[in-house]
Amino acid sequence: MTGLTPYLAFDGTARDALTYYRDVFGGALVLNTYEDFGRTDGPAEAISHGMLQGPVELFASDVAAGESALKLDGILFSLLGTAEPAVMETWFARLAEDGSDIDALQQRSWGDHDGQVTDRFQIRWLIGYQG
C-alpha cells in the first residue's frame, strides 16, 4: 500500500462496483464474502471486504443491516498524473460511458489536461495530466 486508500461502503453492490473499477483501471480483485468471514449480519454472498489492487487501489464492502451506505457530496477522487496520458484518457472514457455530470477531459488554459466525471456508482473523478 502506498498511502490513502478509499474504503467504500455499498448497499449490496460492492462486487459490481469493484469488478467495474477493475475493468476500468486494471489490477487484481480480492473479494471476501460475509460467508468467508463467518458473518451472519447480511447475505452470505455479500462482500465483507474487497480490494482492487493495481494502478488505482480501492477497498469496498457491502453494509450490514442498519449501517450507512456510501453518500458522497463535495468530494472527488483525483487521479492527476497517475499514469501516462493515453491511459488517463482511456480511464476517463470508460468512466464516462455510463457516467454523468461530465466535464470533458481537455486541455485547459494553463496548458494541462483535465476533466471530471461522476461514474455510475456516483463517485466523482478528476482525471488529468500535464502537457
TrEMBL record:
Ranges for domain Glyoxalase/fosfomycin resistance/dioxygenase: 7-125
Superkingdom assignment: Bacteria
InterPro entries recorded: Glyas_Bleomycin-R_OHBP_Dase, Glyas_Fos-R_dOase_dom
Protein name, entry field: VOC family protein
Organism: Tessaracoccus antarcticus
